[in-house]
Amino acid sequence: MTFSLRTPDRKVHAGVILVKGTTELLDVAPFEFFAWVGKDSLKMLNFTPEMIEEGLDVELHWVTEDGGPTKMKSGAQIMPTDSFKTCPPLDIVLMGAHDDKYRLTEGEKGFIRESYDTCTAFLTICGGIMAMLEAGLLEGKTVTGPRMIVEALKKQVPNVNWVDKRWVHDGKVWSSSSLLNGTDLIRGFATETWGGGSGMIEASLDAGHYPARDVDFKDFHGHHFEVEHF
Question: What pTM did the predictor assign?
Answer without folding.
Answer: 0.96
